[in-house]
Amino acid sequence: MNNFTSSLNNKNKFLILGCGFSGSFFAKTIRQLGCTALTSSRSEKKDINNFVFNSENNVVPNKKIFDGVTHILSCIPPDKNGKDPVLRILKNKLESLSLEWIGYLSTTGVYGNTKGDWVSEIDHPNPFHQRSHKRLNCEKEWIESGLPVQIFRLPGIYGPGRSTFEAIKNKKIRVISKKNQVFSRIHVADITNAIIYLLQNKNSLKFYQIINIADDEPCSQLEVIQYCYDLLDLKMPKPILFEDAKEALSPIAQSFWMENRRVSNKLLCETLGYKLIYKNYKLGLKNCYLNS
Ligand SMILES: NC(=O)c1ccc[n+]([C@@H]2O[C@H](COP(=O)([O-])OP(=O)(O)OC[C@H]3O[C@@H](n4cnc5c(N)ncnc54)[C@H](OP(=O)(O)O)[C@@H]3O)[C@@H](O)[C@H]2O)c1
After folding, report:
1. Distance from chain centroid for Cα 48
2. Which residues are near ligand 1 (CB < 6 Å)?
3. What is the pLDDT of residues 31-58, one digit of tens each?
4. Which of 56, 58, 24 is nearest to 40 (CA)?
């Protein structure tokens, strides 16, 4: 665990826009540091710290929600037209606040297919899928907004409650093999902790507007699934070749297999000095196994 000093404190108020899997983990952790964190969802929740924001039907948060906000983390994906929902609806409001920082969770899909090569932040984005073009457009909108935004490009997110174990338990697992295919991943705790590390050290570290958060070891999906079966002490079903399996996959599932890249974390972990909690899928999945 990285050591947090006290530069984030109860004077900081965070709005977590889009409090799904990553947002909830971040909100929980930032509160433990003494900060206030209000979270949004598209429908009402029984949680006094939650408010409704839904760009699909223009439900906008009450003005009071924004009082004293210092930090915003947006975890909301692009809308169907490739616009950023937060900027489309709340840009003027955000400009009127004295914000210290905005974090935007993006995806490493913007790099496109590198046929297994490493990609880093200095590589030109080369989106392949339509959804990644939309994402790159949202990144551009955030950068051009002139707001104090930092963009985090994320590969496949997993953690307790959302991992291969759930797929096995719910009988949704597909054991597919495709030669030389790798995926990068990140444990949800490392997304939160990396961001907090950067905020805690904001004054001493050089500011980078775009940062990948990925673990050290991109690898095949098969290795990950095999490891989960081993932990469960169960026999893994025989893998099916991708070519034989692809017809039965949904278009979205197929699309993930059409890109092959290794996401570099050197900027975050070497240049900026963040120490991953879960350096690889084995460490991360052990945590999921113990907390599922
Ligand atoms: N999952 C992955 O492996 C992965 C990988 C790379 C990047 N990402 C991206 O990283 C971000 C966080 O990922 P995640 O998996 O933690 O997300 P998530 O669990 O799907 O949460 C997304 C949040 O956005 C809210 N939201 C969606 N559309 C909205 C709209 N039009 N207006 C207002 N709120 C809206 C959802 O509201 P409700 O709570 O009401 O549903 C939810 O709280 C997302 O942008 C995601 O696309 C995800």
Report:
1. 25
2. 18-23, 41-43, 53-56, 75-77, 79, 85, 105, 107, 154, 156-157
3. 999 999 999 999 999 999 999 999 999 9
4. 24
